[in-house]
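REQUEST ID: PR-0412
SUBMITTED BY: lab tech R.K.
PRIORITY: routine
TASK: structure prediction, single protein chain
INPUT:
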Amino acid sequence: MAKKDIAEKASAKPKKAEKKQKVGFLKKMIRYFKDLRGEYKKIVWPTKKQVINNTLVVLAAVIIMGAFVAGLDAVLGLIVRFVLQQA
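STATUS: complete
OUTPUT:
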């Protein structure tokens, strides 16, 4: 009979440990979302003027780089054609 009690207690202990892990996990998730909300409040959103300005800067940079790559491609293409015609 004593062996059965010991076996029951041994099997009951992991259940308690599992419960603690689940509660710990739930507490961790709650803490995570509370921290997430706190960090979200710290975000400084740009103004409409800043967004438009940054967008224009990016578009200008893309256009300039596109023109540079297109020009480089044209020049290198001419050089390759010239070399191939000479061969």
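NOTES: The first helix runs from residue 2 to 41.
REVIEWED BY: pending
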